[in-house]
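User: These chains co-purify. Model them together.
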Amino acid sequence: MARPDDRLADQLRPVTIRRGWLTHAEGSVLVEFGGTRVLCAATVQSSVPRWRRDSGLGWVTAEYAMLPRATTTRNDRESVRGKIGGRTHEISRLVGRSLRACVDYKALGENTILLDCDVLEADGGTRTAAITGAYVALADAISWMRDRKMIKTSPLVGSVAAVSVGIVDGEPRLDLCYEEDVAAETDMNVVCTGDGRFVEVQGTAEGQPFDRAELDALLDLAAGGCADLTRIQQEALGS
Amino acid sequence: MARPDDRLADQLRPVTIRRGWLTHAEGSVLVEFGGTRVLCAATVQSSVPRWRRDSGLGWVTAEYAMLPRATTTRNDRESVRGKIGGRTHEISRLVGRSLRACVDYKALGENTILLDCDVLEADGGTRTAAITGAYVALADAISWMRDRKMIKTSPLVGSVAAVSVGIVDGEPRLDLCYEEDVAAETDMNVVCTGDGRFVEVQGTAEGQPFDRAELDALLDLAAGGCADLTRIQQEALGS
Amino acid sequence: MARPDDRLADQLRPVTIRRGWLTHAEGSVLVEFGGTRVLCAATVQSSVPRWRRDSGLGWVTAEYAMLPRATTTRNDRESVRGKIGGRTHEISRLVGRSLRACVDYKALGENTILLDCDVLEADGGTRTAAITGAYVALADAISWMRDRKMIKTSPLVGSVAAVSVGIVDGEPRLDLCYEEDVAAETDMNVVCTGDGRFVEVQGTAEGQPFDRAELDALLDLAAGGCADLTRIQQEALGS
Amino acid sequence: MARPDDRLADQLRPVTIRRGWLTHAEGSVLVEFGGTRVLCAATVQSSVPRWRRDSGLGWVTAEYAMLPRATTTRNDRESVRGKIGGRTHEISRLVGRSLRACVDYKALGENTILLDCDVLEADGGTRTAAITGAYVALADAISWMRDRKMIKTSPLVGSVAAVSVGIVDGEPRLDLCYEEDVAAETDMNVVCTGDGRFVEVQGTAEGQPFDRAELDALLDLAAGGCADLTRIQQEALGS
Amino acid sequence: MARPDDRLADQLRPVTIRRGWLTHAEGSVLVEFGGTRVLCAATVQSSVPRWRRDSGLGWVTAEYAMLPRATTTRNDRESVRGKIGGRTHEISRLVGRSLRACVDYKALGENTILLDCDVLEADGGTRTAAITGAYVALADAISWMRDRKMIKTSPLVGSVAAVSVGIVDGEPRLDLCYEEDVAAETDMNVVCTGDGRFVEVQGTAEGQPFDRAELDALLDLAAGGCADLTRIQQEALGS
Amino acid sequence: MARPDDRLADQLRPVTIRRGWLTHAEGSVLVEFGGTRVLCAATVQSSVPRWRRDSGLGWVTAEYAMLPRATTTRNDRESVRGKIGGRTHEISRLVGRSLRACVDYKALGENTILLDCDVLEADGGTRTAAITGAYVALADAISWMRDRKMIKTSPLVGSVAAVSVGIVDGEPRLDLCYEEDVAAETDMNVVCTGDGRFVEVQGTAEGQPFDRAELDALLDLAAGGCADLTRIQQEALGS
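Assistant: Joint model of the six components:
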């Protein structure tokens, strides 16, 4: 059965990364994976959380959120409900952890970089788009710090990119859109470094449990997708 | 003393209204007043709040919010702090009240239109940009309802637009940017209907109290600015 | 059509200001505008908010609230609901901003005066009664500080009073009671200094938008009402 | 050692009960025990909590709170802090339980009477003043219901009054003011019915534990004090 | 009418106290009163609350909570509801106050001991079991401090134990199980010191008010029960 | 380098599953993985969440929490902080999702089974112990339903068990204790069905990213561990 947009099983949606979308943020990116649009803003703070003070080490963290009408039907605002939902918490933690995998805390010094990832429109894969875009915003914030002599050497020890994969109609597919995501038996989010190693592997059987062969096929697809995204990130940063 | 962008005292910043910015919302607009960018999304709900049930009347309401890095320095998320601040509450109420001034509840039937106004970037006048853009998103949502035969006649009984005015360096000025807003002795937000009457007048002496002559000068400026914005709204809707 | 209590259109309700209603507060007033009763208590704190420390400047702020049975039907407590509503936030901010218009922060030194305005019974115009009464409590708190040599010169650079006006049955009226407030097409709250200048003008079209002539008539009425209230405040402070 | 106001050990402070202090409430009382002033408002609701529906039985409940400047130093508002403190919860529950002791739920029908007890000024014994005053407001609300034929027979099966007792300087004393309350080794709140039986006995050793003889002396004092208060309540209701 | 488990009116349920139930806590006890099981954990903190700093004095406090399925039907978690209920607040305060009655703050130095009392299973008398068990955990935590030379002399100036009593079917009974608790006309919780004095007496008429003779009978029963519990505590600590 | 308890790299800690630990719950288990102890309680509700009503389908969900002193140093209660942390949310969702993998919603009918997993003591692997224990409590609750004829056939379509694996000192190890968990470069939680397929795979590089060979080794270890746990579950249920 064909994909909704006729892509090949191992093909990404059109991905664009627009740097400098915001005027004030130290780094900012509007990233699009097909119909999914996420605004990633990096803020540099010359301090660290309380538990890290006087360690000489920096910190990187993230907050993920979705505008109420990013989706087909409207979701109530978490600010109005007075609390953050489990899904938001979970993804914020994932984004922060993923970005920390490519940062040398010592080179960062006692500074914090906070990545705000706000989903303006959602069509599947918002968390992986957020990670992929936030890496570029992070890189720009680090350049901003170097320009201002806040740091001497770059704390970036590599890059990270992320993609979703899943089994739909029995077929392993790369970068699911919302329609496929809902129909998937198994859904996996994978974060890789630019040199092809794994930072996060989160696979969930939504319907039938999956066997080792299926898992292997998904990991292969994801590794390929992340390699493509790494190239797109580098092109964006090179321009 | 000249304005930061060399505008005349009675001149608006460049204003753009892009309709259909979101795929799913029943109406959506990205509105820009110079460096201020607000995403306005209209959601149609075929129900009304509990206190209005079985009245045969509809409802229009709004929620305003700001992304954390819309501003020069980052603001904490209200969802993370677990409560909505007074300023957010106040502006949400103002936007809803302003839009209700151009709606016939009976013609709307027992439906609600909710306007989400999210500030992506802030450079002064975010509440007035939100009202001006939300009117266009509201008009689009009403067209959407008519196309689906949810309503027979248009519940729009006019249009609304809003602008800020203030006294800076002793001079009454139209459509203050952030730099002017901070420096203003008096700051006023005015909402007008398309036929030039007033819906809201909110003037505040930030520094020196203002006399009647100054108040009159500000009202004149605002009425002119709203007339310009009404024309821009009509052009956007005509296209 | 006559007013519910047969007043003239430009006549205030009976206004009483009882000073020293509480034993412990540095200043306290029970203010009545007809059936509206507000208890205003001033608390002197020898510190300022964090963002103002080491500036040499003081601060004045306010909190407004309503007892649950101040109104015809009972309102749930905001403490029980776990959050403050938009209306409460909005009025608290208005009261604080209004009082700050008559204070010289430098003469106040690094001290804060906090005005608690609790509505014991509501019959329209609670926010304007709160401002009018809170000014007197503020003046008493400042005398208390001078008696204790906390400050050398008075930080009061004038006085403020507030009143509501509105258009009811097509007629502009001063100081609306609840019954008139509900029926008003346009409702405006105006805060003036003792010398007749404006601090806040907040007009809202509840029903029909209003034109410039109506706005002018309302401003005239309000200026007259505030002048009367200023005299009543001075008599209360003189006794 | 003499009491601060030279009272005898078994003497109440001056107690006044002013009925009808509020215009709208179905029953309302301003009760004073010396410098302690509590506003008690009864609200009649023609419904019962969900867990009691279709039982044919009524309900009586209470909410206790303190204005921020009721005390020598200001307390933050619980609405601002976003949650109700343990002390407030505890006293609200005590007041409701005490009043329920004199009510026949069947005669009340499926109606709720809610007693709001707001402390305007505190000088010790606020919870016992609240109970004593709320009983009178409750009785007035019941008369109001009978006048409107909401109930046929009175659901009041007696009366309740409450007083604090304590051991200060080794001496058992009745109706402690704040200064004595702070100095008390043992502090006890006692709620009695009009016919002299106990509804609540809550004794706490603040300093030294107390022996049975001391407990007996305190109970004797409290029973006497409640008998006096019962007479004052009846006089108030008779007028 | 016989008791559900055929006990005598003045007989405790089987009581067991298992020390050292947790590996990490400075003191820990699993206490059982029949079917009621409470896990009490003592945590030593080398600091005191802000309001007590630089006083040279220590502090003891407690938090009580119930697992959701400790009871016949499940209760929602207070963490999920986002706030602590009145009953939980009230009991936490009672447990803390009771334990403080046997502690010399000066000998404790500027340290805090926090007692967590979590009800794993509830069959009546959870608060009194919590106090009785928490005393033993407290004693163990104090031994732990002495072993580490954090304190020189023991801050324990006695012991505390607690029990519930009530009037069921007209008969005063000791240590009510849940079935009796629900049926009781009067319910009383009593906390005594090891030498037989009272720390807390909290009696409530659930149904009929009680007279002085009934109150005396309940106090006698409670004093006897606490003496038994004191012996069981000492045996547990002696082993 | 040897493991802290001298286990082999592919060896589980001693695992015990005690059924029926609570009297009231429809299923309950105290599960121990070495020093980790989790109390799992199953509650049967004859209703489903609102969004699932009239579907004929049941639901299974879970709530995970930790007692404050389950850990070496005390954690504040989430009920006291007024909100649930991201980690708690994330694990609750994982436990529910894992259990749903072995349930046929149709056979369950419109009933909900809620699993409460409360960590009494934590020494690594609390979420995997929770899943493993909760499965047994779930099976007992289903037997309870069958005994009461609430369901005709068993909705259990298999079993689930979970274990943690990680790379410590460069060596892949099964079932990490806390000391190893803290030291792990990579940490993975794996949930398998009784027939050896995967339900969840959640791998995280805490330090160095991991390559495909390391990932494969961890998956092999986890599959073996889950097979062992499945056997232990079956023995527990067979007894």
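Chain F has a mean pLDDT of 95.
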